[in-house]
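Collaborator request, handled under Task 6.
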Amino acid sequence: MGLKFQNILVLAGIVIGFLSVIVVLAGTLLKNSVPNVLAPEERHFAFDYVIVGGGTGGSTLTSLLAKNSNGSVLLIEAGGQFGLLSRIPLLTTFQQKGINDWSFLSVPQKHSSRGLIERRQCLPRGKGLGGSANLNYMLHFDGHGPDFDSWRDLHNLSDWSWAQMRSFMSAAKPKNPDMLEIPRRYSKLTEALDEAQAQFAHKDWIFRRSLYNIRNGLRHSVVQQFLNPVIHHSNLRLLPDALVKRIQLATSPFLQATSILLGIKDEENMEKEFSIEVRRELILCAGAYQTPQLLMASGIGDVFALKKLGIPVHHSLPLVGHNLHDHFNLPLFVSMGVTGPTLNQNTLLNPMTLINYLSSGSGPLGNFGVLGNVASYGGSGSPPYGITFFGAGAIDESALMSISNFKGPAFRALFPRYYNASQEGFVVISSCLQPKSRGSVGLLNRHMRRNPLIDPNYLSNEVDVACTISAIRSAVELVNSTAFAALHPRIHWPRVQECSNFGPFERDFFDNRPSDHYLECLMRHVGLGSHHPGGTCALGSVVDSQLRLKGVSNVRVVDASVLPRPISGNPNSVVVAIALRAASWILKSELQAGDSK
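Structure tokens returned to the collaborator:
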């Protein structure tokens, strides 16, 4: 009887799987095109507000202005719509290197990335409505008050303390049921984390179960939260698949943006250019890589660098493109001697996995597998660090290598059981939350269809090395604790050829205390960026306290490039909060202008 019932379940899983594939294909083929698109005959029109970039900042800002402004709004996005598969959480990584990813590569790294091809990091960025909010891992972060207080204290930004930002961070958080919190009893790993929280109550560690922007098993990004509810408003137009190539400036009576030059390619890949006039404000939301790229291509930036490229200088702003920051991770694989369950072939091929997902949006397909994190915010004076637990036992070599740029030997050293598709385990990821290393974004030439030169400059500051080592040793302490003992965990210290003088030695697999030299060698070889770039048009140096471009009265920047320092967590929700605040200033300015008439 039991075997017969199991066979019925298997057959049901196959049938449902087949039907779901049909639905997905039909949805992809029959999906509506972007609505409310600016028609060709309208393309010489002027708009009160022109927003460049439909990512997190642009979608949020568009929503508030379309809903509350008396002016016309144009949202320009270089991509189109994300496909239906982008909403299935576990399929997130399969979008990278696809049509909705800019697929940037860093310049060769001097201090890191030695185990990557050409020492270059993959830098995915979303291309399409929703931007990187439709490409990221959907993790929500409520913000960390001291981050904003440091902006006030260290960057003289008195308007940006936690007291001013708390309400905007609260407004940025989707309301239930638009979020998914991983339950305590989700798996043996989450149970171990729950027990560890009690065991390490004496430490300054903050334990969090993952909170996702997921509703009913589907990604719930800024597109669903903000853009879709206003997308048919009469004062809003969208212009997808359009690349902004230049900002046109006028100097009289004062320096301001008067129009933008765009390019759209036709079916024959021929580009047509046209201009859009800016009546009130031009708002740049193109992200930490492409906002500075557009400014520099328009002759706004460092005079010497622009002249070297033959770009006419229209406005000197020397720090455009500087101060690039990002988190940097060291992943370690931990195998388990028990069934988790964790993400592996057995879990994904189990018919109940598909049945649970299709019926309730739950189970492994309904999240990305990041189950929780532990943070230390430097209460003892040490730099803050984070430890993330990713419940994946089997790491697919071809999939991960293609999106990480690993060399084969480096990947296999990091994940020595890559060949075992039924392996149970998890990946523990250690990172410094406030890295000191700073990089830059530059130009190869002024053409916006050429990728910018992106140098994250990971691990250029030794403080980041010491901070990451502290994170690794705390992660080891957690994994070796009695709270995790029931998992029978084993840390697989990577045998990287170039690090063999420092370890791992046989004793390291038993006492789990490899040397600092070995850990530093590891992070410089197999460490990966977090895809949290920011800082390249920073508050206080490139934009003023209300996000206006210094010296250009009607241009604002509303994206992660304005972050003067890293966020001590995932930055997406902070960018939403910044966009909400920017909208309040813009609408207040509009109201005051109306009252003065």
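The cover message to the collaborator said: "Confidence is low (pLDDT under 50) at residues 1-13, 21-32. The chain has two domains: 1-31, 40-595. Please let us know whether this matches your experimental observations."
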